[in-house]
Design a protein that fits this description.
alpha+beta; Aminopeptidase; 2 domains; six-stranded mixed sheet; 8 helices; 6 strands; 38% helix
């Protein structure tokens, strides 16, 4: 008589260790908990300060924009985030951006599958909202998505020693840097007490360049958010 004992475990006999493995299904949800969000962002190697949850609050305080902060889970583990702000105006149209008012944004993720889940969710949400497009300001192009080529980012690795940098900029630029100091210019670092003076100067320079500038309320919101390192 043949041995009827099973050669592989039945469902009831599965090794308990398998039950503790995380689910492979990726779930994307809205996030309103800044602590959970920032815990993930702060440990991610590609994150920027703008990915932190407080940036959302600064945008709301200064501009009153709608925002959508999506978080990806795999089981109980947070495996990705994607912050998006809706920009809507009669002049420029209606679209979602990650992130506006700054250079960087886009999704943070553990795996390509998480990235795809977040981006797919964002594209679907943009369509449901009736937005014209979704713009992700990643440092690197995402696969299968159109890429704007009218803007570029130039990066320079800075040495740890400022004297090394000063020597590297060349004699002509060094002379230009030294000239204000010889003329008695002084520099100050502070907070909101310097905002009026700061804004008066930067708004004048933007005007000279022919570039529109955000309202002073935006800079005030950033100082409220990060008073110690703005």
């Amino acid at each position: 008589m043949a041995d009827q004992s099973p050669t592989t475990p039945t469902t009831e006999q599965q090794d308990p260790a398998f039950e503790s493995l995380p689910s492979t299904e990726i779930h994307v949800e809205s996030c309103s908990d800044g602590t959970i969000w920032d815990n993930y962002v702060s440990q991610h190697p590609q994150s920027s300060v703008y990915h932190l949850f407080g940036f959302r609050q600064a945008v709301t305080a200064a501009f009153g924009r709608e925002s959508y902060y999506w978080l990806a889970r795999q089981g109980d583990a947070v495996v990705g985030v994607l912050p998006v702000v809706r920009l809507k105006s009669a002049l420029f149209g209606d679209f979602l951006t990650s992130l506006p008012y700054v250079t960087y944004g886009g999704a943070l993720f553990d795996t390509a599958a998480v990235r795809d889940a977040l981006v797919t969710h964002a594209i679907g949400s943009a369509r449901e909202l009736g937005c014209q497009h979704l713009e992700l300001r990643d440092e690197s192009p995402l696969p299968d998505l159109a890429v704007r080529t009218d803007k570029i980012t130039m990066q320079l690795a800075l040495p740890g020693d400022p004297d090394v940098l000063f020597k590297a900029i060349g004699s002509k630029l060094r002379a230009q840097v030294r000239r204000p100091g010889k003329a008695g210019a002084e520099s100050f670092v502070g907070g909101k007490e310097l905002l009026d003076d700061f804004y008066a100067i930067i708004s004048r320079k933007y005007r000279d360049l022919g570039v529109p500038i955000y309202s002073q309320r935006w800079f005030e919101a950033l100082l409220d958010w990060r008073p110690d390192d703005s």
